[in-house]
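Researcher: Go.
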Amino acid sequence: MLSQRLEHRQVYAGAVGNVLEWYDFAVYGFLAPLIGKVFFPSDDPVASLLAAYGAMAAGYFSRPLGSVLFGHLGDRIGRKPALMLSMMLMGAATLGIAVLPGHAEIGAAAAVLLLVMRGIQGISVAGEYGTSAVLLVERAPADRRGLVGGWVMAACNLGFLTGSAVGALVSTLLGEAAMAAWGWRIPFFLGALIAVHVLLMRRSLEDSPLPRDGTASLPVLEALSHHYRTIGMIVCLVLPVAVTFYMCFVYASSYLVERMHFSTAQALDITTLALVLQVVVAPWAGHLADRYGRRPLMLFVTIASLLATWPLWWAMHQPSLAWVVFAQLCFALLNGIGWSLTVPIMVELVPARVRVSASGIAFNLCLGLFGGTAPWVATWLVTRTADDFAPAWYIMATAFLALLATLRMPEMAGRPLSR
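Model: Structure:
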């Protein structure tokens, strides 16, 4: 019983950092209109909002740098030191945003400093997710690696939910005027406190032993030169879940309000319900992957996405709230299963010498190039083709690539990891 409690503590200490990463993402997105007015004042509120979202995008653009930095540290020095550093950077940057003077106090320097803080957060995110996934899956028993990976993914969704809830709660309690003046800083102060909690928990985190064949002198270069096929396979496997997530929880939510005339509250309620389902599904899917293997479940997800995406997209275009909720929950179910599977898969396919580097490059490359751009791609496709179902074809194309990658993927469930 004691060993089981210690194991649970290790999983919590490793995965809880992802709660903060996605908490920050949700808080910034929720408060972007207020942040835009403080740091990018303009007579045009749309211009201020776009500038605030531009600062948000800086976090995505800095992710490749984070993959290189933390991939090198994680493979050369150890997973635990990389995780401690990523959390210190995230905590410092989040606190920096909380105390940063606005444009009224220091002029244009405020916007520059906000961009720097967002860039540091992006570097931290790139190191946190990949490194924590690698460490936890490496430390897990062979028959529980999928379950542990599922908890990593559940933590991400839980952070997103927490961020949205905290932003909404603080806004409701303080009111519009206080929120615009200073209340928007409170969620970021809470984020800094979460970072301190994570650091304290991680002091007792056990690190993975370094590879028996030694560490690579330049892990990133070795990963790109010797394991580019595996990196490409991981990108294809992550592709449909990354695109579907941003398509359904960013693009579709805006579409429901602007084109389908649902209220903002209804759109947010649907998104929240879908995220709750993903939190529940992720560990369950990881358990099934341990029992039946990664390939059978990935085949289910990719084939189901190919067959069900068009009908579900049709359901989301119906004026009935019930149809829309049904479609979003089905997408959330497939997406939750797919996300949870990618965590152990990207760790198991790569040798230990370059595991953090290769998995981090693959994940952040996919998320940056295809996941984060999905709402813009969807908007462009609909505008160019005048076909509201163009995003569905895009999702189906990514599912087809994932299906091809799954058919070539070796089954690693229950097998020992390469050391």
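Model: Residues 211-419 form a domain with the Growth Hormone; Chain: A; fold (CATH 1.20.1250.20).
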